[in-house]
Amino acid sequence: MNSRLSGCFLIALLFFLPFGITSCKQDDIFVDPAYVFIKWSQAVRTLDYTKYSQCEAFPRSTDVFRQLYGDYYYTDLITRDIGKFDVNDVKKDIDGSTFRHRMVYFECNRVERKSGKIVETMKGEVEFIQYTEKPLSGRGWLMYNRTIVRSGHGG
Fold this sequence. Notes:
This protein is α+β, with helices and mostly antiparallel strands and 155 residues long. The chain is 32% helix and 36% strand. It has one domain: Nuclear Transport Factor 2, Chain: A (Roll). It contains four helices and five strands, in the order ααααβββββ. Strands 1, 2, 3, 4 and 5 form a five-stranded antiparallel beta sheet that branches. The relative contact order is 0.15.
C-alpha cells in the first residue's frame, strides 16, 4: 500500500472511530463497516474485483463491476451520520438468511478515471448487514444496498 493510500486510510479510520467509541453500551463498535467501506472504495478505485466482492453481500459479476466503475471512482468518503443499531431488528435477505443492519450516510467525490479530476460531489447512504447465522456470519459487515446521488458540481 503506498503512503498516500495509507494516509487516506488512517484519516478515514480516525474519522470513523468516534462513531464507534461514542456508541451506547449495547451497541457494538461500528469500526468494521468503516473499514469495509474504505476497502470497497479502494477496490473500486483500483478495479480490484476480488476485494470489491469481499465487501458486498451480493457482488455484481466481474463484467458489470468493470462497466459500473470503469470510467469513474469515488474518493474522499466522509460519514455524515450513522443510523441507529438495534440488535433485535433482524431481517431476511432474498435467500432467507437473517441479518442485522445499520445505515451509513456519507458524502464523497466522483472522479473521472481518464483525467483524475473530480467531476461532481455526491451524497448517499449504504446499508451494512451482518449475518446472524453460520456460515455467513463469519463474513463480518457487508455492503447490502447503496444509493449515491449528485449533491453538487465538482472541480
